[in-house]
């Protein structure tokens, strides 16, 4: 039984939702806990051909046997969360959800400040979801907490206690981190970053477990990195090239067109080091080489696909254990022991 943290290896949008959904289906964790910033990160989860865009509920919700937890380090927008609970009613999310008593609360004034700040909105490209201003209030010790919100009372609990007790019983726990490592306030492309750290260490702290309780850290890389908003992007390709390669994408939260680039091995090595990665998951290999679409056995991949994976392993020193070759859960190569 293991405690696994899943981390984005680029600027978000790496396809973590697909990897998390696969792990939930395969490993059947008793708890899926969310760390990270808040509703400024969107995830798209596809279940039986239907897509769900979510910003607050853990993306492991399709596994109906798992408890869904939002750690104390995560900012909660009650309006967004309650809408998602209603939207996902068929998955009994409301019956399985635990929101930590100490989650910080985003209020309308935080969103207004976020959207009116010209420096953040225009120069950096904030999502306007109020996360930055709410984190400022948290640092100033004036932020409202989840335990003070009446509408959240049916879902409140001690997430740290529940996770640690599950680990004591030898159960599987999956912690999903939002955004990507290169958006970390400390280790990312400052000032074009989010309002807190987004590495595995912080995700463990967000849900209330110590570092010695973590067994595996899976860093997720997309075969072609993308970025929404401003900021450095060393391997960015021209828009015309992205269109030619059919790599045009739009952000889940902002709807803005994503900038697209070539895989950056140097940054991948740094990200693995920052997170203490034990495994790597590669998504969208089928976009890197169309001949890899839908393949489920490593030996059946094209030579181009294999060479790409081998080079990532060589450059980072970390094994690539999961490879996504399409949007469906079964379109996954699992090389774990």
From TrEMBL:
<dbReference type="GO" id="GO:0044208">
    <property type="term" value="P:'de novo' AMP biosynthetic process"/>
</dbReference>
<comment type="subunit">
    <text>Homodimer.</text>
</comment>
<dbReference type="InterPro" id="IPR018220">
    <property type="entry name" value="Adenylosuccin_syn_GTP-bd"/>
</dbReference>
<dbReference type="GO" id="GO:0000287">
    <property type="term" value="F:magnesium ion binding"/>
</dbReference>
<keyword id="KW-0547">Nucleotide-binding</keyword>
<dbReference type="GO" id="GO:0004019">
    <property type="term" value="F:adenylosuccinate synthase activity"/>
</dbReference>
<feature type="binding site" description="in other chain">
    <location>
        <position position="127"/>
    </location>
    <ligand>
        <name>IMP</name>
    </ligand>
</feature>
<feature type="binding site">
    <location>
        <position position="42"/>
    </location>
    <ligand>
        <name>Mg(2+)</name>
    </ligand>
</feature>
<protein>
    <recommendedName>
        <fullName>Adenylosuccinate synthetase</fullName>
        <ecNumber>6.3.4.4</ecNumber>
    </recommendedName>
</protein>
<feature type="binding site" description="in other chain">
    <location>
        <position position="179"/>
    </location>
    <ligand>
        <name>IMP</name>
    </ligand>
</feature>
<comment type="function">
    <text>Plays an important role in the de novo pathway of purine nucleotide biosynthesis. Catalyzes the first committed step in the biosynthesis of AMP from IMP.</text>
</comment>
<feature type="active site" description="Proton donor">
    <location>
        <position position="43"/>
    </location>
</feature>
<dbReference type="InterPro" id="IPR042111">
    <property type="entry name" value="Adenylosuccinate_synth_dom3"/>
</dbReference>
<keyword id="KW-0342">GTP-binding</keyword>
<feature type="binding site">
    <location>
        <position position="258"/>
    </location>
    <ligand>
        <name>GTP</name>
    </ligand>
</feature>
<feature type="active site" description="Proton acceptor">
    <location>
        <position position="13"/>
    </location>
</feature>
<dbReference type="GO" id="GO:0005737">
    <property type="term" value="C:cytoplasm"/>
</dbReference>
<keyword id="KW-0479">Metal-binding</keyword>
<feature type="binding site">
    <location>
        <begin position="324"/>
        <end position="326"/>
    </location>
    <ligand>
        <name>GTP</name>
    </ligand>
</feature>
<keyword id="KW-0963">Cytoplasm</keyword>
<comment type="similarity">
    <text>Belongs to the adenylosuccinate synthetase family.</text>
</comment>
<feature type="binding site">
    <location>
        <begin position="42"/>
        <end position="44"/>
    </location>
    <ligand>
        <name>GTP</name>
    </ligand>
</feature>
<dbReference type="GO" id="GO:0005525">
    <property type="term" value="F:GTP binding"/>
</dbReference>
<feature type="binding site">
    <location>
        <begin position="252"/>
        <end position="258"/>
    </location>
    <ligand>
        <name>substrate</name>
    </ligand>
</feature>
<feature type="binding site" description="in other chain">
    <location>
        <position position="194"/>
    </location>
    <ligand>
        <name>IMP</name>
    </ligand>
</feature>
<feature type="binding site">
    <location>
        <position position="13"/>
    </location>
    <ligand>
        <name>Mg(2+)</name>
    </ligand>
</feature>
<keyword id="KW-0460">Magnesium</keyword>
<keyword id="KW-0658">Purine biosynthesis</keyword>
<dbReference type="InterPro" id="IPR042110">
    <property type="entry name" value="Adenylosuccinate_synth_dom2"/>
</dbReference>
<dbReference type="InterPro" id="IPR027417">
    <property type="entry name" value="P-loop_NTPase"/>
</dbReference>
<feature type="binding site">
    <location>
        <begin position="12"/>
        <end position="18"/>
    </location>
    <ligand>
        <name>GTP</name>
    </ligand>
</feature>
<dbReference type="GO" id="GO:0046040">
    <property type="term" value="P:IMP metabolic process"/>
</dbReference>
<dbReference type="InterPro" id="IPR001114">
    <property type="entry name" value="Adenylosuccinate_synthetase"/>
</dbReference>
<feature type="binding site" description="in other chain">
    <location>
        <position position="256"/>
    </location>
    <ligand>
        <name>IMP</name>
    </ligand>
</feature>
<feature type="binding site">
    <location>
        <begin position="284"/>
        <end position="286"/>
    </location>
    <ligand>
        <name>GTP</name>
    </ligand>
</feature>
<feature type="binding site" description="in other chain">
    <location>
        <begin position="40"/>
        <end position="43"/>
    </location>
    <ligand>
        <name>IMP</name>
    </ligand>
</feature>
<feature type="binding site" description="in other chain">
    <location>
        <begin position="13"/>
        <end position="16"/>
    </location>
    <ligand>
        <name>IMP</name>
    </ligand>
</feature>
<dbReference type="InterPro" id="IPR042109">
    <property type="entry name" value="Adenylosuccinate_synth_dom1"/>
</dbReference>
<keyword id="KW-0436">Ligase</keyword>
<dbReference type="Pfam" id="PF00709">
    <property type="entry name" value="Adenylsucc_synt"/>
</dbReference>
<feature type="binding site">
    <location>
        <position position="141"/>
    </location>
    <ligand>
        <name>IMP</name>
    </ligand>
</feature>
<comment type="pathway">
    <text>Purine metabolism; AMP biosynthesis via de novo pathway; AMP from IMP: step 1/2.</text>
</comment>
């Amino acid at each position: 039984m293991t405690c696994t943290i899943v981390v984005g290896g680029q600027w978000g949008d790496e396809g973590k939702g697909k990897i998390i959904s696969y792990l939930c289906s395969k490993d059947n964790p008793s708890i899926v806990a969310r760390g990270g910033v808040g509703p400024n990160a969107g995830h798209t989860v596809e279940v039986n051909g239907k897509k769900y865009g979510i910003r607050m509920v853990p993306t492991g919700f399709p596994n109906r046997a798992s408890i869904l937890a939002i750690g104390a380090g995560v900012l909660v927008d009650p309006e967004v969360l309650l809408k998602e609970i209603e939207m996902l009613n068929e998955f009994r999310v409301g019956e399985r959800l635990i929101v930590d008593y100490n989650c910080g609360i985003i209020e309308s004034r935080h969103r207004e400040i976020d959207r009116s700040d010209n420096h953040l909105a225009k120069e950096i490209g904030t999502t306007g979801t109020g996360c930055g201003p709410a984190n400022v209030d948290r640092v100033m010790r004036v932020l409202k907490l989840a335990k003070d919100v009446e509408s959240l009372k049916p879902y409140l609990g001690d997430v740290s206690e529940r996770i640690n007790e599950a680990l004591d019983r030898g159960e599987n726990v999956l912690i999903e981190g939002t955004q990507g490592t290169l958006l970390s306030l400390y280790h990312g492309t400052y000032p074009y970053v989010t309002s807190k750290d987004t590495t595995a260490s912080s995700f463990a702290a967000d849900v209330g477990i110590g570092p010695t309780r973590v067994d595996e850290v899976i860093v997720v890389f997309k075969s072609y990195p993308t970025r929404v908003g401003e900021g450095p992007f060393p391997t960015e390709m021209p828009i015309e090239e992205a269109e030619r390669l059919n790599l045009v994408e739009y952000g889940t939260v902002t709807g803005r067109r994503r900038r697209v680039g070539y895989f950056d091995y140097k940054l991948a090595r740094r990200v693995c080091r920052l997170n203490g990665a034990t495994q790597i998951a590669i998504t969208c290999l089928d976009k890197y080489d169309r001949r890899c679409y839908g393949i489920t056995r490593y030996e059946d991949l094209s030579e181009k696909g294999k060479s790409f994976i081998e080079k990532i392993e060589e450059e980072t020193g970390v094994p690539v254990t999961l490879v996504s070759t399409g949007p469906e859960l079964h379109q996954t190569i699992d090389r774990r022991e």
